């Protein structure tokens, strides 16, 4: 792959001085257009050691308006990062609309080096590359401009630069595999080539740049970024021009929700004791999970007034406050609005051993945003796969994921709405929105049905809870959490035994 | 102190049912007023083990609109936190305007327990308490409502509860000193009493609650929070009503800036080499600092067009991109606006060994905000002390702090403004704002003078750089950074030797 790139392309200082001003202006204008049209721009600068990655990062700060450029490095892993799903660190640093995120190495840097030094297996490497290809496709589809640059040096040039830097004591290693990788040109080039092949797609292509000559390199990088912006702009135009088609939905005459037995009632005689027993059990289980580093993400969806808040409070009372947090999902802040819709949920992903409870969740994308037409059909239809991928990462990262839908009848909802209007501290809970949503009950049923169908996975099934009786719902929620956690602890124990037996 | 509290106050269930609804409504209304009037509310729930801190936190979520309530715990220290100034974790979690931050233990919880078990010296403990008193005064002055609750139990009740919890295997310890503290009632009570005495102030008073009876406890907590909100509302009203006095400023006929020799010029023959040598030196020094965990915070202030961006780029080129970040301070986001003005700077404080460079800084408070009248005189006058306290913490937390003011003549500014207007990719840098600021040159001189006077401290002096010649300014900036870092490394070395000699 690299043979066709490293052809000794050069650009004289004179030619650079002629070409640079116009290109710099073009790059600057491309950035301006990103700001105007709210496009986030992700630039990954990867490459061989000594290829001038740092110089390129600095050049970009100079040629662009650096008020909107944010550079990020990822070579170091903090314990906060280690104890969360692998992508957490990347997600939190993704550029917001109108800003540029320059990722030094990005999600490729460490993986390529660890693979080349044998610190990562081939299967693990390929799995990661496929995963990042998918992530980039999803980001591009959400409107992000993506430029990925590999700065290359041929073997001779690489060796010469390394020798020179060693002589001048200019080689500084920040990670153990840095050194090994830099001393093994062939393995590094071959690993990079694999990564590039596996993740080169039209929406997020790689640009391989011969970095032997700094002038040529700088111009090539600027051109690649301009091209990435042009691609995103064209995609945005095309999206606007596309006719608004009616979404393809699963026709459902009989809803999943119809099958729920709403007559379940809690025994008022034993409710208090049952609740306390469950809370005590859960407190012990979550404490055991904390000791083992198993975290839990619990989300609540369901009809307005179905009793999410009440369930969450009883749940929280059954988990030590030192290891749990409830996150209400309301109106997004402007920082959240400027990012991919999953960004705000990544922010609160629990550390190993901790519990995060979301009151409403990422499913808003395929529920309220779909029903109210806040999001285009092509965007919310894509969300099912994005959400599954996100949840897969949570589970792979050691999270127990529990998803609740609280269900009751429209009649019971009406009763509770009226009750709310009559209780002083509950009046704020009832707004014209609630009455309007109520009218769209059948649309929400359809959206919920499709959501259950597409996102009830083996690793993260939906639990539909009969909530006609509030107390029964609370007990059911606590019971489900208890059982899920018990199973996870048992599996962890067995996995531990298996790992032990292998040794 | 506690004897007067623990008098066996009780509230019967009947009385609770009578009183609770009205109090709940009052608490809810207090929260609504915080939202309307953009008041952040900080509630610290501390207390004896088994006093029901968790139950109180849950009650608050139930009685308030929990969309705006965020609970935070601090018992665990991540390495991200350990490698930054101690207050970093608290600052990032301070409530935004209109929201409630419930701090479980807050900055008191761990300190009280560590002091009582002998894991913290008395001097350290008192210093911290004085520091937090100062911090709370500053937060209250910025408009925050502060409620601090200590849930108390007498010795007998505490012992009985502990016994019962041990019998039911309900005692769960998350930190090593948890256990020791819970087994030593007298020491814990005495440490708590010290903390309360040292930090009890009218603007952020403690409420000590007899927690033996849950009904009484819950009502008392709600009342304390309502009182804290009322205090903040009254303070806000008083502030509005206060006559706008002219600020007291230091009259300065001769400015500090007049003394700067602007004739300094870089030798164009050797500039390139001098710059490269300095960058090479700095790269090595910052690498050594990284190894020793010494971080650097470098800030740039100065006239528009004085060349901050150019200096920063040359500086960044002299530091490995893997350990450095440049943070441009532009228009704040709405999340930033909703917080204390120092919050957005705390966000980017470097980890041990890392370098953060701020393009403009927290000094905007006493420069542009003062001159343009964006901030009331009482607020920006308070900022000098707040900034000094902030910088003291940075330095105490292992940061090398370097502060630059780039100075040139009004004539040179005019020349550069015109040049910018004529260079295509620099046109965006010149706005009507720049021309307006220029007219206020003397006001800025006065503001800068007072800033130098009040914030040039031994641990964080100002460096005024002659920037009439851009190249000379760049070399001076790099030289200053080099010298400061060299000194810090030498001191660290000597400190290390001293520590060694002591053993």
Biggest protein-protein contact in the assembly: A-B, 57 and 57 residues
What top-tier CATH class of the largest domain in chain A fits best?
Alpha Beta
Helix content of chain A: 40-55%
Sequence of strands across the biggest β-sheet of chain A:
2-3-1-4-5
SS-derived structural category of chain A: alpha/beta
Low-confidence stretches of chain A: none
CATH architecture of the largest domain in chain A: 3-Layer(aba) Sandwich
Shape of chain A: globular
CATH superfamily of the largest domain in chain A: P-loop containing nucleotide triphosphate hydrolases
CATH third-level topology of the largest domain in chain A: Rossmann fold
Please describe the structure with a list of short key phrases separated by commas or semicolons.
five-stranded parallel sheet; homodimer; 20 helices; Rossmann fold
Describe the structure.
- The structure is a homodimer of 503-residue chains.
- With 503 residues, chain A is an alpha/beta fold.
- Chain A folds into two domains: 2-241, Rossmann fold (3-Layer(aba) Sandwich); 261-502, 3-Layer(aba) Sandwich (Rossmann fold), CATH 3.40.50.
- Helices cover 53% and strands 12% of the residues of chain A.
- The first copy, chain A, contains 20 helices and ten strands.
- In chain A, the strands form two sheets. A five-stranded parallel sheet of chain A has the order 2-3-1-4-5, with helices on both faces. The first copy, chain A, has a five-stranded parallel sheet with strand order 7-8-6-9-10, sandwiched between helices.
- In chain A, helix 1 runs parallel beside helix 10, helix 5 packs across helix 9 and helix 11 (271-292) packs parallel to helix 20 (470-502).
- Chain A is globular and about 85 Å long.
- The mean pLDDT of chain A is 90.
- The interface between A and B is large, with 57 and 57 residues.
């Amino acid at each position: 792959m690299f043979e066709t790139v490293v052809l000794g392309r050069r650009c004289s200082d004179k030619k650079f001085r002629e070409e640079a001003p116009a290109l710099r202006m073009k790059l600057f204008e491309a950035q301006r257009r990103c700001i105007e049209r709210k496009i986030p721009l992700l630039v990954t600068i990867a490459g061989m050691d000594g290829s001038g990655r740092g110089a390129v990062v600095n050049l970009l700060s100079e040629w662009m308006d650096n008020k909107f450029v944010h550079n990020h490095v990822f070579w170091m892993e903090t314990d906060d990062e280690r104890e969360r799903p692998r992508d957490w660190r990347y997600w939190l640093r993704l550029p917001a609309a109108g800003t540029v995120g320059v990722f030094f190495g990005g999600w490729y840097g460490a993986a390529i080096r660890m693979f080349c030094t044998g610190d990562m297996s081939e299967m693990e490497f390929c799995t990661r590359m496929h995963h990042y290809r998918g992530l980039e496709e999803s980001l591009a589809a959400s409107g992000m401009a993506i430029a990925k640059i590999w700065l290359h040096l041929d073997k001779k040039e690489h060796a010469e630069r390394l020798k020179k830097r060693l002589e001048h004591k200019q080689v500084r290693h920040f990670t153990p595999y840095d050194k090994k990788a830099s001393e093994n040109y062939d393995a590094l080039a071959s690993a990079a080539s694999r990564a590039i092949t596996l993740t080169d797609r039209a929406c997020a292509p790689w640009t391989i740049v011969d970095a032997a000559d700094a002038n040529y390199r700088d111009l090539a990088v600027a051109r690649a970024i301009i091209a990435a912006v042009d691609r995103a702009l064209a995609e945005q135009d095309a999206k606007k021009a596309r006719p608004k088609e009616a979404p393809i939905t699963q026709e459902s005459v009989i809803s999943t929700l119809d099958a729920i037995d709403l007559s379940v009632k809690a025994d008022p005689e034993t409710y208090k004791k049952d609740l306390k027993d469950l809370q005590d059990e859960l407190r012990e289980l979550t404490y055991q999970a904390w000791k083992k580093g198993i975290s839990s993400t619990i989300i609540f969806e369901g009809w307005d007034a179905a009793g999410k808040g009440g369930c969450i409070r009883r749940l929280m009372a059954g988990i030590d406050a030192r290891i749990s947090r409830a996150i209400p999902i309301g109106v997004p802040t402007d920082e959240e609005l400027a990012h991919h819709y999953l960004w705000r949920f990544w922010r609160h992903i629990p550390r190993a051993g901790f519990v995060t409870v979301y009151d409403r969740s990422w499913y808003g994308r395929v529920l309220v945003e779909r029903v109210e037409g806040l999001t285009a059909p092509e965007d919310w239809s894509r969300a099912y796969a994005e959400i599954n991928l996100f949840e897969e990462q949570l589970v792979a990262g050691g999270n127990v994921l529990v998803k609740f839908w609280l269900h009751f009848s429209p009649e019971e909802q009406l009763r509770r709405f009226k009750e709310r209007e009559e209780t002083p501290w509950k009046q704020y809970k009832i707004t014209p929105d609630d009455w309007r949503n109520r009218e769209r009950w059948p649309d929400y049923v359809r959206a919920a049905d499709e959501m259950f169908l597409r996102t009830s996975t083996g690793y993260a099934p939906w639990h539909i809870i009969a909530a006609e009786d509030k107390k029964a719902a609370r007990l059911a929620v606590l019971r489900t959490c208890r059982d899920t956690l018990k199973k996870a602890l048992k599996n962890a124990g067995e996995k531990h035994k298996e790992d032990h037996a292998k040794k």
